[in-house]
Amino acid sequence: MAPEYAMQGIFSVKSDVYSFGVLLLEIISGKKISTYYNHEFSLYLLGYAWKLWYENNLIELVEPAIRETCSIAEVVTCVTVALLCVQDHVNDRPTMSTVLIMLESGTAASMSPRQPSFAAIRGPTNTDSSTFELANASITVFTGR
Known about the structure:
Layout: H1 3-8, H2 13-29, E1 36-38, E2 43-44, H3 45-54, H4 64-67, H5 72-85, H6 96-105, E3 129-134, E4 137-142
Antiparallel strand pairs: 1-2, 3-4
Helix pairs in contact: 2-5, 3-5
């Protein structure tokens, strides 16, 4: 779900672009967006994909069943496009027509997406309530007796 829709209820064509980016990452990795991936850095799929992209180690993101037969250049293009699609700010996301051009031409590989801000999460900090920190925001869920 696009951040602007989740936080403010605002929906636009760029919300669909965000969803396309998520779907593309799920297809490449064979993993769900909500699954917890890197225990050392507390990363979900968006953060894990960006970390591997930043470290130039995208082959680790690819579903193992297709890892040996896929083109790394195509993986780089697809993951870069996906990361551009899931940018936090609506105006930073490409249009779907631009996405199509980038996928067909491979030009996305030279672009640099920003790190997603809601990609990391830390687990509960005490037993009376659950506190989760997302970037610079925190959400506290109080439980009754």
